[in-house]
Each structure stands twice: as structure tokens, then as C-alpha cells.
Amino acid sequence: MGSAHRPGETGCGELLLTGASNRVIARRMDLSERTVKNHLQSAYRKLRVRSRAEAILKLLGRAGLRRPAAPPRPRGDTRGTLPPPRPGGDPSGPASPPPAD
Known about the structure:
It is a single chain. By secondary structure, the chain is mainly α. The protein is built from 4 helices and no strands. Helix 2 packs across helix 3. The mean pLDDT is 76.
């Protein structure tokens, strides 16, 4: 069912990969923002995606490119990691209260 992309869709898709907004794409292609939006929506349907991000990932995949890997974190940086499990307790739950006297 993959219909061929029209030139406007192709041009918008190429600029989409640069991270350009609809406004910037419109200026560079001498189109209205509404026309750019229509071209992108049509391209999304043909690519079978629902969002700008999905379209970018699919277009990068077709070009044989991958998303860049996350840069390595500095040593000792624990942001985004889980804390170590608590001894004798459920690592995902809150600590148990001390027993009542």
C-alpha cells in the first residue's frame, strides 16, 4: 500500500530530519506552514507512523542510520539508575516501620 511520496513530502521529510520546525521548513521551501503540516501528515500516513518522532526514527532507519547512542556518564553519576536493594526488604517498596513496643 506504500504510495510514492510527492516532492513536497520528500522535501519536508528531509528537513524534518534536521530537526527543523514546521515554520522553518515552510520558510526554506517557500510554502505556508499549513502546506508543510499537510505534507507531513500525508507522509506520516504513508510511513504508517503517528508522530514526528516516529517519522524521524523510521526515516533514519530507511537511510541506514541509527539513533546516536547516549554519551557515557561520568564515573560516579548514578542519575537514572535504581538504588541498591534494601537488606531483608522489598527493593521496590518502602522500608518497613520498626515493630511497636
